[in-house]
Amino acid sequence: MATKRISDEQLIEIIEAAIFVAGKPLSKRHLKETVLSELSVSMSRVNNAIDHIQIHYQTRGIRLVEVGSGYRFQACASLAPWLSNLFQERAPKYSRALLETLSLIAYRQPITRGEIEQVRGVAVGSGIMKSLLEREWVQVVGHKEVPGRPALYATTKQFLDYFSLTGLDNLPDLPKQQQSKIDQLLSDPSVRELSE
């Protein structure tokens, strides 16, 4: 049972340092179960400490931001022109096919490869799916109950983290015309699922 008490200032310091050194986003629950496990700290105090840290960094070059799997520090986007000089390697270029496939998975998950191909009108290369799986942006979440039992794909917390999203509800809205066209293509009874 956690019995040690700490001040609000100490709590802020511990949470700030933990998020800073973690190297990956930390959820409130993870903070409570690890660095705060031996301390008597309510979730309300954790929330207040995180709010305080976010306010403190609002006028700084870095921000405490919430992403899909928790909180992390990241540089302000407005500083990218200067900070990019620190990195010699170029940001990866993603093909249009990969981005279209990822978009369909993000907006229509769970979705099969056959359904993606039906909407795109072309085959999805195995390299695209392999790349998305290796980056851990998508995962197989089950199999559709149709002949061949094709895999159902959905996005992951790493996808949300990479694109600085807290959830799928933060995705921009699809234009109504595109949404209705996708719905029409996916409801077409002539769509046959191929085994994968």
Structural summary, described in words:
The chain is an alpha+beta fold. Helix content is 44%, strand content 13%. The protein has nine helices and five strands. It starts with 7 loop residues before the first helix and ends in a 9-residue tail after the last helix. The C terminus is likely disordered.
What's the topology here?
Layout: H1 8-22, H2 28-33, H3 43-56, E1 62-67, E2 70-75, H4 80-83, H5 96-108, E3 111-112, H6 113-120, H7 126-134, E4 138-143, E5 151-155, H8 157-162, H9 176-187
Antiparallel strand pairs: 1-2, 3-5, 4-5
Helix pairs in contact: 1-3, 5-7
What is this entry, summarized?
With 196 residues, the chain is an alpha+beta fold. It is elongated and about 65 Å long.
The SS-based structural class is alpha+beta
Q: Count of helical segments?
A: 9
**Helix content class:** 40-55%
What string gives the helices and strands in order? HHHEEHHEHHEEHH
Output the strand order for the largest sheet. 3-5-4
What oligomeric arrangement do these chains adopt?
A: single chain
Largest sheet, if any? Answer: 3 strands, antiparallel
Q: Could you tell me the number of beta strands?
A: 5
What is the CA-based Rg, rounded? 21 Å
Q: What characteristic shape results from the CA principal axes?
A: elongated
Q: Uncertain spans, ≥5 residues at pLDDT below 50?
A: 192-196
pLDDT averaged residue by residue:
88
**How far is it from the N-terminal to the C-terminal residue, by CA?**
50 Å
- Beta percentage is 5-15%
